[in-house]
């Protein structure tokens, strides 16, 4: 195996290392975004007449 092949393999692995935190951050943002609206349910209930869940 040539040095060039080793360098290419290492560069490909570093891309995978960065992908995992990026995906984890996206999932965290989606979870946080889905819970932000929950406290607003009380306001929506008063304004729009929503029932209790």
Descriptive report:
The chain has one domain (3-48). It is built from two helices and no strands. The mean pLDDT is 80. With 53 residues, the protein is mainly alpha-helical. It is rod-shaped and about 70 Å long. The protein has helices at residues 3-36, 41-48. The N and C termini lie far apart (63 Å). Helix content is 79%, strand content 0%.
What key phrases describe this protein's structure?
53 residues, mainly alpha, 2 helices, 79% helix
Overall structural domain count? 1
User: Helix and strand string, N-terminal first?
Assistant: HH
> In terms of structural class, how would the helical and strand content be classed?
mainly alpha
Give the CA-based shape.
rod-shaped
Oligomer classification: single chain
Q: How many separate helices?
A: 2
**Low-confidence regions:** none
Fraction of residues in helix: over 70%
Strand % is under 5%
Mean pLDDT comes to 80
Number of strands: 0
Radius of gyration: 23 Å
> What composes the largest sheet?
none
Q: What distance lies between the first and last C-alpha atoms, to the nearest angstrom? A: 63 Å
């Amino acid at each position: 195996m040539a040095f060039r092949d080793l360098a290419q393999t290492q560069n490909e692995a570093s891309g995978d290392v960065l992908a995992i935190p990026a995906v984890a951050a996206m999932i965290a943002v989606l979870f946080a975004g889905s819970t932000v609206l929950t406290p607003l349910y009380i306001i929506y209930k008063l304004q729009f007449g929503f029932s209790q869940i």
